[in-house]
UniProtKB/TrEMBL annotation:
A GO biological process held by the record: proteolysis
MF term (GO), any: serine-type endopeptidase activity
Organism: Micromonospora sagamiensis
InterPro entries: Peptidase_S1_PA (IPR009003), Peptidase_S1_PA_chymotrypsin (IPR043504), TRYPSIN_HIS (IPR018114)
Name used for this protein in its record: Streptogrisin C
Amino acid sequence: MRSIRLLAGAVVAVVSAATVAVPAYAADPVAADTGREETQAAILAYRTVYPTITEDAAKVAATQQETRKQLHEQLAKEPQTYGGGHFDPLSGITHVALTTQAGADRAAEAGRALGLTVHARVVERSYDELERLADTVRAGTDELAVLAKGRVGVEVSSNTVTVALTAQEEASLPKGAVPSWVTIVPASTDSVEEDVCTSRANCNDSLRAGLVIHRSGGGCSLGFTARSSGVRWALTAGHCGGGTVTNWSTAGTPIGPMHPVNAINSGPVDAGAIQVTNAGYAADTLGRIAISGSSWVPVKGRAHTMSFIWVGDVVCVSARYAAPATSGNPCGVVTKTSDAAVRGLTRYEGYDPCPGDSGGGVYWLTSSGKRYAFGLHSRSTSGCNATPRKAWFSALPRFWPGLSYDLA
């Protein structure tokens, strides 16, 4: 785990989504929060990523995600036996992994009680153990670690750590260099672009997830915020930092500085923290997500652990170019929670963000209308609604381990 230094080790009250307390914008409207547009975007995302899925099955997949997370919360209470889960939208089956048969039996029973079709299997390693093993490869100095160059992930379905290598790299490994708990996968051949812009027009006036933010020589999108010992932080992608102390603003209004130590762009973490020194912005305690124009909706929570994020989950993104002309945000489907081919970042498909969307908030809209922060958009293959529609985000648990929320 890598933490942004000024947040690491602190007792942090986290407020999901960027915030605003500037009196001039007090009248900004709260969107009529039916969630209808995002629900339709979620269904579209499933139908885009899985072309053969029926509309009814896509609706069930989108609306059942909250129930699947209820099952996750039950199983995650015993992390020593929980190996994670994933969802197959085509079959409608929820797959969970446990390290004991007794645990698998209890998981299947719990899933049935929730009305889910569950397949529970026994695996060798818990999800926490897989993450620890992945970190040993990322930090290692042996032949495998050197060749991996940080291209390390976790695959729940195979219960292994995945390492992405080219055919030539794999062939160069000496015999016995690959542990039994590692699966070698092909290195990506996609041309992945970091979604940074250098000259983009401002699109709004107040802090909330999805707005354009600027520094000298660059611009990105605003994501979520945190509060530590009375200091407020606004998050964006780490690769937006610029390598020196940079001062950030939105629509000409200062936000505050980002120091190089608070910009991480390494392995599965692409996150940067801007210290919010504008007194108006710093005083606010309510998290917001931009929906359209000046409208916003609140955020109610976040993914606290990597095992909370499943393959088959639908996520939406609020960033500068995310559906600017509509009342909802576009959505995609998680297809790799820890994609070794792209540094262990979380991959989602069905929507391709644009340059300038980096740092935007990636979140989940529950069927009960709550929004949970999942991460910060990092990069994509094509760069702006082209095919293949693949993108990656930096998951919040990677750089906010063990922190709690203050949602007052």
